[in-house]
Amino acid sequence: MRFSEKIEVKNNVTIIARERGKKVPGLCRETHNTWVNFGRLYLAEVISPFDTGTGHDYARHYGESSVSRVVRYMGIGIGSADQLLDIATLYPTLNSHYPGQNTYTDSDITVNYLERPVKVTGTAGVGSSPGVWMSSLGYPLIFSGSPVHKVEYMTYFSETDLNLSGAYPSVPLSECALILSNEVASRLSDEVYDYGSSPDYIGAERQLVLAYNAFNTISKTLAVALELHWEISF
Questions:
Q1: 5 domain residue, yes or no
Q2: Tens digit of pLDDT for each residue in 70-129?
Q3: Residue 170 counted as domain residue
Q4: Sign of the torsion angle spanned by Cα atoms 166, 170, 172, 173
Q5: Positive or negative, the Cα torsion across 3, 38, 210, 201?
Q6: Cα–Cα separations (whole angstroms), residue 36 to 105, 134, 200
Q7: Domain that includes residue 117, residue range
Q8: Does 1 map to a domain?
């Protein structure tokens, strides 16, 4: 490779919506995300050895003795500047349970979190049971290309996911993110939001994201199931 050439990390996000098993084109999205600063640091560290020449360099920064910190979850939310609906007016319950602004863009590499993450499963409300904040990847992962230079991650949200079995008749989704496996404890946290910390309301256990994507609003109802596909190519 010439020094003037660069390896570019390309990212593509596809969301497929189905209602009663049939694809709903108007609710599907094909977009591109950004690999944010934390994700770029992770990529640099994960291919670099520790001082001993073994293991991964991120152990030095995070005090980890293992090398098992890998992409494992996808989170989804109602934040971002691509949110098309007035949540405060149309969905006052969601606005109070998942407070925050709608300012993040997927061209901003300084983004650290989902702006307004939502629970996948659990009990609706402030101060309720923690619930589950991220969805695990489906396996096996899909590697492709000739030679192989792509990996595709996929997760699934059922009809009752995100709507919390009907507590929220419609959830206006507008952002998603890739998240590492070491966030497993915060996946069940009740400190994702700090309800006294306006205007961002970022709690002590808001999950750091590797890559962030904003998309035009998908109104997720109890009749809709979603597949989220995230392809990364080098």
A1: no
A2: 899 999 999 999 999 999 999 999 999 999 999 999 999 999 999 999 999 998 988 767
A3: yes
A4: positive
A5: negative
A6: 11, 19, 19
A7: 10-233
A8: no
pLDDT for position 70: 84
Reference 210, options 116, 111, 95, 100; nearest CA is 111
Q: Is residue 86 part of a domain?
A: yes
**Which tokens in the block code for residue 189?**
């946290």
Task: Give 145-184 pLDDT, tens digit per residue.
Answer: 888 888 999 999 999 999 998 999 999 999 999 999 888 8
Q: What's the token pair of residue 220?
A: 């997720």
* Nearest in space to 179 (alpha carbons), one of 112, 232, 118: 112
pTM, to two decimals: 0.88
In total, how many domains does the chain have? 1
Mean pLDDT over the full length of the chain: 87
3-state helix, strand, coil in the chain (%, to 5): 15, 30, 55
How is residue 105 annotated by DSSP? -
Longest dimension (CA), the chain: 57
Cα separation, 183 vs 165, whole angstroms: 25
